[in-house]
């Protein structure tokens, strides 16, 4: 009886790129969760002792922009069609939508999504970082 030969995965997308995107997704998710931890998200406090409602300290008052989300989007935009399809397929496999043996089907289905709003689609997945890592692990990629 012959042992089945395990498939060697030849990904177009670099696994390090997938890990970087997972890291960014995890940071974005952590930032969102911190916003809602205390149950007072976006609550505005008004100081009754304020004399000048227009007084501000210049740049110190400006909101800090979340560059992680922007970096994630830029990384995804820079991917080619094959890399984008594989990234989505990895997330789907990690989420359990497809089995490893259905890799080609997952990539094909992901390719049919097109390339519009891919970053938003991916960031809409609540456990994206875990699912990307699980997808790589399912393929046996360390």
What is the topology?
Elements: H1 15-36, H2 67-77, H3 81-95, H4 103-112, H5 118-123, H6 128-138
- In whole angstroms, the N-to-C terminal distance is 29 Å
* Helical content class: 40-55%
Helix vs. strand class: mainly alpha
Task: Specify the overall morphology.
Answer: globular
**Uncertain regions spanning at least 5 consecutive residues:** 1-5, 33-37, 41-48, 50-64
Helix run count: 6
Describe this structure in words.
- The chain is mostly helical and 142 residues long.
- The protein has a domain at 15-35 and 65-138.
- It has helices spanning 15-36, 67-77, 81-95, 103-112, 118-123, 128-138.
- α3 (81-95) crosses α4 (103-112) and α3 crosses α6 (128-138).
- The chain is globular and about 40 Å long.
Provide a compact summary of the structure.
53% of the residues lie in helices and 0% in strands. With 142 residues, the chain is mostly helical.
């Amino acid at each position: 009886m012959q042992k089945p030969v395990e498939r060697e995965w030849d990904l177009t997308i670099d696994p390090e790129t997938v890990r970087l995107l997972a890291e960014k997704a995890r940071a974005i998710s952590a930032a969102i969760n911190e916003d809602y931890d205390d149950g007072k998200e976006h609550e505005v406090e008004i100081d009754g002792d304020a004399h000048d409602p227009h007084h501000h300290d210049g740049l110190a008052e400006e909101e800090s922009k979340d560059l992680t989300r922007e970096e994630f989007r830029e990384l995804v935009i820079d991917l080619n069609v094959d890399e984008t399809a594989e990234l989505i397929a990895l997330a789907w496999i990690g989420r359990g939508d497809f089995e490893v043996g259905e890799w080609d089907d997952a990539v094909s289905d992901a390719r049919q999504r097109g390339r519009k709003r891919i970053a938003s689609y991916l960031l809409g997945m609540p456990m994206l970082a875990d699912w990307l890592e699980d997808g790589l692990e399912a393929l046996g990629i360390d």
